[in-house]
Amino acid sequence: MRHPARVWSVALHGVDGVPVEIEAAIGGGMPGVHLVGLPDAALNEAKDRVRSAVVHSGRTWPNERIVLALSPATLRKSGSRFDLALACGVLTAAGAIPPDRLRGTALLGELALDGRLRPVRGVLPCLLAARDAGMARAVVPRAALAEAALVDGLASYGAETLSEVLDWAAGGRDLHRVPVVTGPGPVAAPPELAEVLGQGDARRALEIAAAGGHHLLMVGPPGTGKTMLAQRIVGLLPELGRAEALQLAAIRSVAGRLGDSAPLSTLAPFVAPHHSASAAALLGGGSGVARPGAVSLAHRGVLFLDEGPHWPASVLDSLRTPLEEGEVRLSRADGTVRYPARFQLVLAANHCPCAPPVDRDCTCRPDVRRRYMSRLSGPLLDRVDLRVAMEPVTGFSITGERGEGTVTVRGRVLEARAAADERWSQHGWRCNAEVPGAELRARFPLPAAVLEPLEKRMEAGELSARGADRALRVAWTLSDLAGTDRPDRADVDAALYFRERSAA
User: Fold this and answer.
1) To the nearest whole number, what is the mean pLDDT of the chain?
2) Which family does it belong to (predicted)?
């Protein structure tokens, strides 16, 4: 038996890449291909794809016993991204590729039977893991080069066929390359907040939500601007940093949502699934290795759930853990994967199923209204910091002056965010909504007179301890918007006003 050859690829575990060493040994038994190292069905089928691709690329397939070992052996390997590495490993072991040519090179791509190289999901997190493991180069399908260009510190090459990769490995040709993308791509202008008519309370609640990272519920008749307001919150949020933008791009890559061209987007995401979406679509799931859902695609952005009471109550309640912990844990037989999911939740709801333009025209029985709104459970609503009742748009508001524009409101939001960041960044928190209640009370205690409204409502059973902490966070955001050092009693009263404003 000849000395085994070694090449490298990368496996995905959630949104994290894990470098995989592939050893190829030829000889020592009856002809055949044996794949070891916990491959799934798609990877097991790679034996036939790889052999056909090698033959159609004009190379000779060894008519001997071939053993391909993927390490770490205890990690489940899934998908077709290992095809290119397996083909190169066999040909390196057969002597068709110089043994040192592929050292320090990560190989990713699915092979067609005729040798074409097809794109795969998750190229970005795989290359980030390869770079962090000390690899210097990567070869990917040419269609994935734009995605690969987001990774600095790694020379990425693109190929369209296996034959191109083999010629390059033999030193006979160059492969395609694109410059590394170091800056963000062009950002489209967000929707203009001034287009929303009236709704002073809702506009103020939207500003507070953006400034502090708070969750928001809007309840009111159809046509009052709930969806319009939700769409405009993204224009008020700060841009993502490079690390956050790369993390979001990695999630989109795993989900297959990054697109053919992948400039690094620094715009906070806005994800609005339909109310018929399943729990797997919302949280993540699927057969085999679970894929990220809407809550992860909204990481560091906004998840908007329109027609909240039309969602199944069990699906809505499944949001409680991500809202508290900022991540989703999905368990399968092959293990547990974690996807980041720190998002702002924006809920919109009508008062009742018939949803007339004016609430007094409702024809629903009281028990029907209660049943309709009860799908927004108490534990879920307790995690929503701001609640606002939308009013019907009147003729006066249509002909009146336009409200403040996005640029003006965003300026105040960014100043408030900067104040919160200065206060909390040394502790690892970015905004007021992320600060644990115990830390908020211990590090920055407020006078008893300021906290008196919270104490009274807790004693009356009208406010839970969690609700009091959330109201306190909103008070700090109101203080940041006002430019003061700490909240006063008026800020606490305003926080409670927005917590109790909705009819929900």
Assistant:
1) 89
2) Belongs to the Mg-chelatase subunits D/I family. ComM subfamily.
Which domain range does residue 42 map to?
5-169
Q: Do 149 and 215 fall within a single domain?
A: no
Pairing of strands 327-332, 335-340: antiparallel
Question: Residue 199, class by beta-carbon neighbours within 10 Å (0-12 exposed, 13-18 middle, 19+ buried)?
Answer: buried
The reply to whether 404 falls in a domain is yes
DSSP, res 362: -
Tokens of 232: 């405009």
Q: pLDDT exceeding 90 applies to what percent of the chain?
A: 60
Tell me which amino acid residue 386 is. Answer: L
d(CA 399, CA 381): 35
Whether residues 315 and 434 fall in one domain: yes
Do residues 9 and 109 share a domain?
yes
Find where tokens 């040394």 sit.
Answer: 426
Report the DSSP pairing between strands 284-285 and 291-292: antiparallel
Structure tokens at 342: 């720190």
* Between 361 and 199, the higher pLDDT residue: 199
* Alpha-carbon torsion (232, 238, 243, 244), positive or negative: negative
User: What's the number of domains the chain is made of?
Assistant: 2
Q: How far apart are CA 348 and CA 371, in angstroms?
A: 17
